[in-house]
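Recap from last week: sequence in, structure out.
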Amino acid sequence: KICIKKLNSTKRIYSNINTKKICLIIHTLGNFYYGNKSSNFINLEIENFIKHKLDIISFEACICLLKINNQYYCPIVLQEILVRENWSNRELKYLMHFFNTHESMLMILKLIENCNKDNEKRIMEIASRTDFFENFVNYILKNINKFSIDTICLAIRNINDPDDFELINHLKEESNWVYQVNIIQAIMRLNYFSQNNFDYLLKSLSSPNWWIRKRSAQAIIQYYGSDVDLIDSLIERIDDKFAKDALIVESNKYEINNFIELV
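Predicted structure tokens:
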């Protein structure tokens, strides 16, 4: 009752509120009524603060409402997250914990499907902080022309299905080195060394771009480093000096790390 009285009083003296006290009141109410979905009066009181001009007050209100009734408030809070671009990465990550449900996944997929150049970055920031971003990868890679290079590379890095590599084969020929580095990272992450990918890594070893050479060498050593004969054979056969040096450097690192682990 004291909390309710204090909450109501803050609205009467709106211009003289202590921000810290408001956040504390909202936070206390949210925790106190956690799981009590029948407290509609309290819900409505807290809802008044979702649109507050101060991000921190809106953030506390959103957290409290999600705790009280996650299913009902997720769509409302999601719309607020879209426009509150000043929320820090830590705050956004915390909020997105409440959105790891099938219903939330469908909501966010719909945002991705209907995004435009003005809101794409924010929508991807939101989507990538859920536990199910991998579910959006296939859609993004099938509609590459619709998205920015940042979104495409984010999807590439999160490939979880080997079949999705077929969707980016044409990007292996792109002149932009950023695509190549992200494709190699995806190969390493999934540990997917098909013949096609291995041939691509060998070719990338001779790239004029230092980062592509380095990542290619790292990927090859990650998978084949324990096969000393194979690596020695590759080093011997390679004519490109820079490619040879990249492979030797990563091979030496692999041997040193293995030695340290044994010791």
